[in-house]
Design goal:
globular; Jelly Rolls; seven-stranded antiparallel β-sheet; alpha+beta
Length: about 750
């Protein structure tokens, strides 16, 4: 009897040791809802102190009367799945400290949902602070402690739109101060960013004036005064006062990227303005101060010149990548930093030239952002903005459907699917369908009624294929274009998935049927039976790179044609723009052709991501080089596709079910010897590392977060391969050139040998 009692005590102690409270509590995708900013700087003020705060503060406000709550499940045990939760929501911390709730006590609720649980308590009121916490049970019989208390405040208007954080300001010191002569210094901040300049200078007379130059580009050890293209340069005169003072350099607004007249650019969309609390910004890495002697950069020196960088809040530690290829490592850092730097207006925009949200930029920037930070609301806000402010290319309107489905897959949160379902349906452009089952912008269907249905307010709506046009590989535009209809197929197919996720089974079936018809007509009318390649459209025999990339990437191409199409694509190399590179590499890795994928990713030619680094930029470019787009800027998110290709295709991490409930890990290493990555997900960090001896042995280590399961696909090295999983021999399931193994959460090691 005594032994039995002791065993029960020991079992209880063991369970206490492994039981971990949920963390990373999020309300409508926002984790740091209790954080208050003072003019962009994170502060120590709590939400409770706001009524007595006299400063100008900013904070995130929840805009839904029924917010969705999420958390990360934690466990020391492998193969952990949540089986139940209990949520407490209250009007005070004190109540929750006693495990009581006056708004909602869910009780023990049997569910594995940990990413988007709808609040189901008493109605929430505007402009009120609320508090909540959660605990979970898992399949090992473990009951966790309650989490820490999380607070949030509701907005004045609970309209259900996506909440987001205010912009954050960070003070950055130079990495180098180089004297150029008497009272003349060159300053390098190491990387470009969007911000302002703050200087602490001393003078003994009122007649002193310094000249300050800012720029993205350097030449001959100075700020390049004539950088060309749309690379930024500016010069300012700063009069000094007697004594020591801190000066803020006010950035002059650029007429084009601060134009609030939506009619001025022909597309009916206005530029996104910076908020008052940050002021206007410009992108710069380099600075010159002339007319003043700055101290050399050593010790605490350098604080005389401070760059006030503006970004959307970003977690630099959320992701990491390193490999045996030094070029690939630099490209990853370029893309990761580009996501951070180009978040400066709080939503996706093209860059600094126009500061307008374009779908084509977001379809590349969205997956790269997911690869480097856990900030799903940033993209969702941008997508919802685009619903009513779309831009002009035909394909880009349909991209909105692709992007909102990706939003759901990565976030697991269906709020935007539900709220704007009818809007997403319109973005398939089914209103342009002709009798042959395809869509066209040249057959008289671009009516005012059609434009109203998709909220387009501009004057020019046409097919784009690639941008600039010279990058479209000689594409021949016809009434019915292959690229446009490939997008139409993909939009219809994903609308079927969206309808299914929302329980709209009849519409799910209809969208699937419509998509199947478009696929059939593309293959009947645009696939050349003689060459086995896709023509650019009906009425031309020309086959471009682009006309073949999109049908391959979206699964339209018949199996028997795929190798032929891949050979054609490989023969063209990187014949498209940095925008097309996304679909090109998606198609190559999907086929799959890991060797070509790695070759393009790590290329050092002039049409490569490495070339962006070589020319001197630290943010991804709008084009491969100035010679390919004479007016290009040096800060464009669609130039950062390599970041998501590394995470999604090279390392193979993608969600198979919404919110990473099921994760596919399918590395395609080619000849890369070693690589390791950490990618954030809504359920926790995913870690993958491999060591590769091509055609001999491939070893893989993965860490899958709790409340997720994994589908691991390893390269099949031979027909008689040997596979061990956690030191146990297994067979796996053959899928093409890969061996598939299903696995639970936790750390696992796989070794496959020839």
């Amino acid at each position: 009897m005594r032994t039995l009692s002791l065993n029960i005590v020991l079992l209880f102690i063991i369970r206490l040791c492994v039981a971990q409270a949920p963390t990373h509590l999020a309300t409508d995708l926002l984790e740091h809802t209790g954080r208050v900013f003072l003019d962009g700087y994170p502060s120590n003020i709590s939400l409770e102190e706001l009524p007595v705060a006299i400063e100008r503060y900013q904070l995130a406000e929840i805009r839904s009367a029924q917010p969705m709550l999420g958390w990360i499940v934690n466990s020391n045990q492998p193969n952990t799945l949540q089986t139940a939760y209990q949520i407490l929501v209250a009007t005070s911390r004190e109540l929750l400290s006693k495990d009581k709730a006056d708004l909602w006590d869910s009780g023990r609720t049997e569910s594995d949902n940990s990413v988007a649980v709808p609040y189901s308590g008493k109605p929430l009121k505007p402009s009120v602070i609320y508090y909540w916490r959660v605990k979970t049970w898992d399949n090992h019989g473990t009951e966790s402690p309650f989490s820490q208390v999380k607070s949030f405040i509701t907005a004045e208007e609970l309209d259900g739109s996506t909440a987001r954080y205010p912009l954050q300001v960070s003070d950055e010191l130079p990495v180098k101060i180089q004297p150029l002569g008497e009272k003349h210094s060159f300053i390098d901040f190491g990387r470009a960013s969007f911000g302002r300049l703050k200087l602490t200078l001393s003078s003994d007379r009122e007649t002193d004036t310094v000249i300050v130059r800012l720029g993205e580009c350097a030449k001959d050890g100075q700020v390049n005064r004539h950088p060309g293209a749309t690379i930024r340069y500016a010069e300012y005169r700063l009069p000094l006062m007697p004594g020591t003072h801190t000066y803020t350099l006010k950035i002059r607004p650029d007429k084009r990227n601060t134009d609030t007249d939506p009619a001025s650019n022909g597309i009916g969309v206005r530029a996104v303005l910076m908020p008052d609390y940050t002021g206007e910004v410009m992108p710069f890495r380099y600075c010159e101060v002339e007319g003043y002697s700055l101290l050399p950069l050593r010790g605490r020196a350098g604080g005389e010149v401070v760059r006030q960088t503006v970004t959307y809040p970003f977690d630099d530690t959320a992701s990491a990548f390193h490999s045996s290829d030094t070029v690939l490592n630099q490209i990853w850092e370029l893309c990761k930093y580009s996501v951070k730097a180009l978040s400066f207006p709080g939503m996706f925009v093209d860059g600094d030239r126009e500061r307008i949200p374009y779908e084509g930029d977001i379809i590349v920037g969205q997956p790269t952002r997911y690869a480097v930070d856990r900030r799903y609301e940033f993209t969702r806000y941008s997508l919802e903005y685009l619903i009513f402010s779309p831009t002009w290319p035909t394909e880009w309107a349909m991209q909105e459907v692709l992007m909102i489905w990706a939003d759901y897959l990565y976030s697991g949160n269906p709020a935007s699917l539900q709220k704007y379902y009818e809007e997403w349906k319109m973005k398939t452009l089914a209103g342009l369908t002709e009798m042959n089952g395809l869509i066209s912008t040249r057959t008289g269907k671009l009516t005012p009624e059609f434009f109203r249905s998709i909220h387009y307010k501009g004057k020019n709506f046409r097919d784009i294929v690639d941008w600039p046009v010279r990058e479209s590989d000689g594409y021949v535009f016809t009434d019915y274009n292959t690229v446009v209809n490939a997008y139409h197929y993909q939009a219809l197919r994903l609308m079927s998935e969206i309808a299914g996720a929302l329980g709209k089974t009849k519409e799910q079936t209809q969208f699937a049927k419509d998509a199947g018809r478009v696929k059939e007509r593309i293959n009947q009318l645009m696939l050349d039976p003689k060459t086995g390649l896709y023509r650019d459209g009906i009425g031309t025999d020309h086959s471009s790179l682009h006309a073949n990339v999109y049908p391959l990437a979206y699964g339209i191409a018949p199996e028997k044609n795929r190798r032929k199409i891949l050979d054609f694509i490989r023969s063209h190399g990187m014949a498209g723009s940095v925008y097309t590179a996304q679909a090109l590499l998606d198609a190559i890795y999907k086929t799959p052709d890991a060797d070509s994928g790695l070759q393009l990713l790590s290329s050092t030619g002039d049409r490569s991501w490495y070339n962006m680094i070589r020319v001197g930029s630290t943010i991804s470019l709008e084009a491969w080089d100035n010679k390919y787009k004479p007016n290009q800027d040096w800060n464009h998110i669609w130039g950062a596709a390599a970041g998501n290709i590394i995470a999604r295709k090279l390392m193979g991490i993608e969600p198979l079910e919404s919110g990473f409930k099921k994760i596919r890990i399918k590395p395609q290493p080619a000849t890369l010897q070693h690589a390791e990555i950490k990618v954030p997900s809504v359920r926790g960090d995913i870690r993958v590392a491999f060591d590769n001896q091509p055609n001999e042995q491939f070893s893989l280590e993965v860490e899958i977060p709790a409340n997720s399961i994994g589908e691991i696909q390893l390269p099949k090295l031979s027909a008689k391969y040997k596979l061990t999983v956690d030191n146990t021999v297994q067979k796996g399931t053959i899928e093409g050139d890969f061996v598939k193994v299903d696995i639970g959460s936790g750390k696992h090691r796989f070794v496959i040998e020839k």
